[in-house]
């Protein structure tokens, strides 16, 4: 798999596929590398946390795609690949001679995935886009935040993550289809499409009612009670997602009267009388601390949790969520495990995120570029200055211009 993408959506997709066992070669500008290498702080031994988060399991080759020799080498790499992933600015891949039509002419069986900000046919199809702007444009911000507060961005670049998930899924489907037809496929994924499809029931509610959805803070528009409640020392999230769970909740609270109240008999009743019920539940939850309520609710079979911080959540999950990789300059590197396991495949060995151009000589040697040719390419700055380095060297990009033509998507 040849990864020509950068920042988040594309690299996240290829990392997931690397987690599943794909061999991923990440192509970066030979000096500047992926933008996220310099998105600091925080960092570990000069390696940015952002880059480390989405590039495990890959080999890195530093290659100047804007140069004719760099393009030719990229096409040779494409010839030996099953999949190419790119998220160039619209028209960028064509200017480099690496768009779908140009590459597939040489490799008809290739699965070529393009990630863009907007889908084909959209009025802004030629525009670049970043996650934050798409969160605003898609309506995601409009439904996020307190009911009486301003719209809010989700605390992570969720649209990019959704686009990466969509891309990895579609790539696997295209590879499966290729097994049946022998033909490649042009997979296209957009940030806006990923955001809109990710609105699921909220989008369907809007279409059915022809009404703009409103913000509900930590509550749910169609389920009650399904929200965070303040406790004596914090907050507890309660997800009583059906009538049986609601009655269990009333038992834990020792409030049989709420279970018997006709206003709250069914979920639809509780939605109609939301505030009357929430007011009474809020009074109850304020009487104990978070840990006491969490333990009682879970013992009663009700999904509930304290509102954790990110670090607390990771530490609580422990080895089920975190694995430690041996990084060449960071040393032991804790990273979040993929969300899936394949019981029949055993544990796949995952390499740490690569240093910039770490595998340039190794990868080029595999396609027949000998040491003398590599030295000549290196002398012309077409490949990474040295692939036997042990640390990435941060480079200012203020005057360097956009690597690889400046890509679409990703924040």
Architecture overview:
- One of its GO terms (molecular function) is CoA-transferase activity.
- Keywords: Transferase.
- InterPro entries: CoA-transferase_III_domain, CoA-Trfase_fam_III, CoA-Trfase_III_dom3_sf, CoA-Trfase_III_dom_1_sf.
- This is Acyl-CoA transferase/carnitine dehydratase.
- It is a single chain.
- The chain is built from 17 helices and 13 strands.
- Strands 5-2-1-6-7-8 form a six-stranded parallel sheet, sandwiched between helices.
- The chain is an alpha/beta fold.
- The longest helix has 24 residues.
Task: Report the mean per-residue pLDDT as an integer.
Answer: 90
Order of helices and strands: EHEEEHEHEHHEHHEHHEEHHHHHEHEEHH
Q: Give the strand order, joined by hyphens, for the main sheet.
A: 5-2-1-6-7-8
Instruction: Identify the overall geometry.
Output: elongated
Task: Specify the helix fraction band.
Answer: 25-40%
Largest sheet, strands/sense/barrel? 6 strands, parallel
End-to-end distance: 23 Å
- Low-confidence regions: 389-411
**Estimated structural class:** alpha/beta
Strand content: 5-15%
Q: Helical segment tally?
A: 17
Number of strands: 13
Radius of gyration: 25 Å
What's the SSE blueprint?
Layout: E1 2-3, H1 9-19, E2 24-28, E3 43-44, E4 47-48, H2 49-53, E5 58-62, H3 68-79, E6 83-86, H4 92-96, H5 100-106, E7 111-116, H6 131-137, H7 158-181, E8 185-190, H8 191-197, H9 200-209, E9 226-230, E10 235-239, H10 243-252, H11 256-260, H12 267-272, H13 274-285, H14 290-299, E11 304-306, H15 310-317, E12 322-327, E13 331-336, H16 360-366, H17 371-379
Parallel strand pairs: 1-2, 1-6, 2-5, 6-7, 7-8
Antiparallel strand pairs: 3-4, 9-10, 10-11, 12-13
């Amino acid at each position: 798999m040849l990864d020509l993408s950068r920042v988040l959506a594309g690299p996240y997709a290829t990392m997931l596929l690397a987690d599943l066992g794909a061999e991923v070669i990440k192509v970066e500008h030979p000096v500047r590398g992926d933008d996220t290498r310099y998105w600091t702080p925080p960092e570990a031994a000069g390696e940015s946390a952002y880059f480390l988060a989405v590039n495990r399991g890959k080999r890195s080759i530093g290659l100047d795609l804007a140069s004719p020799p760099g393009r030719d080498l990229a096409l040779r790499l494409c010839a030996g690949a099953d999949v190419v992933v790119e998220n160039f600015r619209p028209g960028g891949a064509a200017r480099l001679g690496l768009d779908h039509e140009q590459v597939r002419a040489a490799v008809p069986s290739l699965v070529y995935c393009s990630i863009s900000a907007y889908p084909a046919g959209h009025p802004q199809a030629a525009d670049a886009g970043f996650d934050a702007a798409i969160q605003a444009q898609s309506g995601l911000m409009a439904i996020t935040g307190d009911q009486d507060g301003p719209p809010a961005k989700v605390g992570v670049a969720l649209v990019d993550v959704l686009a990466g998930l969509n891309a990895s899924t579609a790539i696997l489907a295209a590879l499966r289809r290729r097994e049946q037809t022998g033909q490649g496929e042009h997979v296209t994924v957009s940030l806006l499409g990923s955001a809109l499809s990710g609105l699921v029931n909220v989008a369907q509610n809007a279409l059915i009612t022809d009404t703009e959805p409103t913000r509900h803070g930590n509550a749910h528009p169609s389920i009650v009670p399904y929200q965070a409640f303040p406790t004596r020392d914090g907050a507890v999230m309660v997800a009583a997602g059906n009538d049986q769970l609601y009655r269990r909740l009333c038992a834990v609270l020792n409030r049989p009267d709420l279970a018997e109240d006709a206003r709250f008999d069914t979920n639809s009743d509780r939605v109609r009388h939301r505030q009357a019920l929430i007011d009474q539940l809020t009074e109850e939850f304020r009487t104990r601390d978070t840990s006491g309520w969490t333990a009682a609710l879970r013992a009663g079979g009700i999904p509930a949790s304290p509102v954790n911080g990110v670090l607390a959540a990771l530490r609580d999950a422990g080895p089920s969520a975190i694995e430690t990789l041996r990084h060449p300059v960071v040393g032991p590197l804790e990273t979040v495990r993929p969300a899936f396991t394949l019981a029949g495949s055993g544990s796949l060995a995952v390499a740490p995120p690569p240093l910039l151009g770490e595998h340039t000589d190794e990868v080029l040697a595999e396609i027949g570029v000998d040491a003398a040719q590599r030295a000549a390419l290196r002398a012309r700055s077409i490949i990474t200055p040295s692939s036997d380095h042990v640390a990435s060297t941060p480079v200012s990009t203020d005057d360097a211009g956009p690597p690889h033509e400046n890509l679409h998507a990703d924040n």
